[in-house]
UniProtKB/TrEMBL annotation:
Residues 171-205 are annotated as: Disordered. Transmembrane segments: none annotated. Residues 110-120 are annotated as: LID. ATP binds at residues 15, 17-20, 111, 150. Interacts with small ribosomal subunit protein uS11. Not a structural component of 43S pre-ribosomes, but transiently interacts with them by binding to uS11. Its EC number is 2.7.4.3. Its main location: cytoplasm. It comes from Lineolata rhizophorae. Residues 35-58 are annotated as: NMPbind. This is Adenylate kinase isoenzyme 6 homolog. GO terms for cellular component: cytoplasm; nucleus. Broad-specificity nucleoside monophosphate (NMP) kinase that catalyzes the reversible transfer of the terminal phosphate group between nucleoside triphosphates and monophosphates. Has also ATPase activity. Involved in the late cytoplasmic maturation steps of the 40S ribosomal particles, specifically 18S rRNA maturation. While NMP activity is not required for ribosome maturation, ATPase activity is. Associates transiently with small ribosomal subunit protein uS11. ATP hydrolysis breaks the interaction with uS11. Residues 179-191 have a biased composition (Acidic residues).
Length: 205
């Protein structure tokens, strides 16, 4: 059963603005914001808490099981600082948010991040770790890199994703319609065969 709503991954280094973007996109499109952190906690898809990295040690199999019904239904915004765990067939668009390192440093410092985590995250942003991960895991044409340094960037990015979502929905509706017509046509030709219309030449010959 094809989905009538797209699934979008919003990813990037911690602090780039994934949650801020997802909240705005959800408001504007009606897509459901799925914060993976919350799912991991609520469904206990983890093997404990990593104190140094200040994050859950995620049990990916359990997480994917918890997400599958939502992904199959469609219309979700997956908000997580990793992306290659999500199966390709789930994903219609991957937004990789990028942030200037000094801006990101300030954001993380404001959140009181431990030095170890702050440094590791900054290195990951500078090394484009998430962008590489996305490009390796998904088709090039569905991966977009967007800046998230300032509020204007956020507004612009949200507008772009809203426009993309509308276009995707129209496209999908057209595809579903075309497929419907095709299957109607083949039903018609079956019906004609059933009624012997196509078989006249054979029976006469
Ligand atoms: N484009 C932006 N312009 C200005 N401030 C931003 C922008 N994006 C995010 N912020 C601010 O940066 C902080 C971190 O944003 P947010 O929580 O959305 O990041 P995140 O990627 O979800 O982080 P995490 O990976 O830790 O969940 C917030 O205070 C948010 O208001
Ligand atoms: Mg977040």
């Amino acid at each position: 059963m094809p989905r009538s709503l797209p699934n979008i991954v919003v990813t990037g280094t911690p602090g780039v603005g994934k949650t801020s973007h997802c909240e705005e996109i959800a408001r504007a499109t009606g897509l459901e914001h799925v914060a993976i952190n919350r799912i991991v906690r609520e469904h206990e898809c983890h093997e404990g808490w990593d104190d140094e990295m200040q994050s859950w040690i995620v049990d990916e199999d359990k997480l994917l099981d918890a997400l599958e019904p939502l992904a199959d239904r469609g219309g979700i915004l997956l908000d997580w600082h990793a992306c290659d765990l999500f199966p390709k067939r789930w994903v219609d668009l991957v937004v990789v948010l990028r942030c200037d390192s000094s801006v990101l440093y300030d954001r993380m410092a404001a959140r009181g991040y431990a030095e170890a985590k702050l440094q590791e995250n900054l290195d990951a942003e500078i090394m484009e770790v998430l962008l590489e991960e996305a490009r390796e895991a998904y088709d090039e044409e569905i991966v977009v890199e967007l800046r998230s340094d300032k509020v204007d960037d956020l507004d612009e990015n949200v507008e772009r994703v809203v426009a993309w979502t509308e276009a995707w929905k129209k496209d999908q509706a057209r595809r579903a319609n075309d497929e419907g017509l095709e299957s109607e046509e083949s039903e018609d030709s079956n019906a004609m065969e059933d009624h012997g219309v196509n078989g006249t030449a054979d029976t006469n010959g």
